[in-house]
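Need a sequence for this fold. Nothing fancy.
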């Protein structure tokens, strides 16, 4: 069914009709010793998880609900690099397969026409200064009609079908993502973070533009400069000073 063209990624692929969350299965399998590159795919999730304890709508056949177990030989502080890497993989697959112009909104939302089509959730198990495993969750809205999104996210959520006007083959997309992921991961091992950073910034949403940024404490205007190897967003404030942000929201839409 999967017809994967990979060497190691997805060689162990667990497919389920329905689960609470592929992330939870990822943790269970990883604790039982599942190898690097193990993939979990579900047709439907009952309790799909997003970042910041948000829920993620994951209805049957409407999208990619997938988690990947990785065992990188990295220090925990380098884990964000893997998330940024994953975002570049999704952007490139969408650009090539979908003939669309995806953008990556920091830290790791995939947008098409300013609307979110995909998100990444990275969860890590680390011991002292070494990563034991990472479960990287990829959610991609593929075949939803726009009207399917709940009111509160409709203005900022979309699907591939919505933005390209036609339905997509989910299995084929998964094949392409895993192949590109494997390749990009190998480039990362050989050449480090630099090529990932360049690709990320190429697709980066509103890089070199002035945007409104908000944190828990304040809201201000700044120019987005790029990303750092530790996952931080680098910005330039109106007084010319540079700053690294680890947690912040970039406002949607104009300014
Ligand atoms: C986000 O943008 O907030 C991240 C969304 C991540 C959703 C995916 S779907 C597959 C995996 N399983 C989950 O429960 N969540 C991730």
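Here you go.
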């Amino acid at each position: 069914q999967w017809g994967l063209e990979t060497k190691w990624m997805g060689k162990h692929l667990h497919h389920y009709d329905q689960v609470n969350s592929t992330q939870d299965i990822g943790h269970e399998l990883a604790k039982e010793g599942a190898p690097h590159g193990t993939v979990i795919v579900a047709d439907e999730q009952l309790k799909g998880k997003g970042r910041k304890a948000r829920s993620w709508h994951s209805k049957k056949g409407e999208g990619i609900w997938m988690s990947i177990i990785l065992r990188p030989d990295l220090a925990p502080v380098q884990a964000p690099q893997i998330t940024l890497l994953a975002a570049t993989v999704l952007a490139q697959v969408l650009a090539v397969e979908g003939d669309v112009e995806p953008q990556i909104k920091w830290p790791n939302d995939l947008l098409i026409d300013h609307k979110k089509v995909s998100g990444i959730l990275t969860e890590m198990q680390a011991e002292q200064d070494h990563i034991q495993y990472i479960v990287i969750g990829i959610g991609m809205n593929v075949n939803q009609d726009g009207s399917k999104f709940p009111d509160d996210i409709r203005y900022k959520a979309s699907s591939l079908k919505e933005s390209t006007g036609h339905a997509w083959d989910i299995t084929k997309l998964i094949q392409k993502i895993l192949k590109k992921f494997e390749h990009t991961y190998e480039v990362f091992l050989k050449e480090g973070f630099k090529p990932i950073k360049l690709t990320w910034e190429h697709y980066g949403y509103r890089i070199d533009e002035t945007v409104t940024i908000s944190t828990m404490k304040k809201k201000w205007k700044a120019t987005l400069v790029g990303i750092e190897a530790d996952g931080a967003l680098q910005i330039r404030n109106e007084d010319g000073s540079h700053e690294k942000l680890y947690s912040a929201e970039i406002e949607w839409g104009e300014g």
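For context: The mean pLDDT is 94.
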